[in-house]
Amino acid sequence: MSGYNLLVLDDDQDRLVAFRRALTNGLGNDLTLVSTASDAISMLKLYTYAIVFLDYDLDLQQSLNAAVTGNGMDVVDWIVTNKAHFQRTHFIVHSLNPVYGPLMYTTLKTAGLQALLKPGVWTDKAFLSAL
Hints:
The protein has one domain: Rossmann fold, CATH 3.40.50.2300. It is globular. The longest helix has 12 residues, at 13-24. Helix 2 (37-46) runs parallel beside helix 4 (72-81) and helix 4 (72-81) packs parallel to helix 5. Helix 1 links the parallel strand 1 (5-9) and strand 2. By secondary structure, it is of the alpha/beta class. It starts with a strand and ends with a helix. The protein has helices at residues 13-24, 37-46, 59-64, 72-81, 100-110, 125-129, and strands spanning 5-9, 30-34, 51-54, 90-93, 114-117. A five-stranded parallel sheet has the order 2-1-3-4-5, sandwiched between helices.
């Protein structure tokens, strides 16, 4: 993998560190890390990404700031509404949520978008380095 523009949505700082290590370790990628649904949507409006990693549960950010709302499904719904802009984007749903992770994946696939369900992907260095 070399030189991709990547977006990661996750509210867990340890996971974000793991993504940063795996995806920027000499690979030449441009990596954007966000922890809220609204930040993810804002970045998707501004930039084109080759790969977008999506989490569902963003409770940590919501518990820290009552003004922060939303979850990964809100981002997926926005993506599907604007799917013409994402025909070349690959989406990887990495959520551990056993209900909404698969729902996010199915929603993206049903909309005709390129998606993969890979819970816990931040621990799979071989997978990340082979993208």
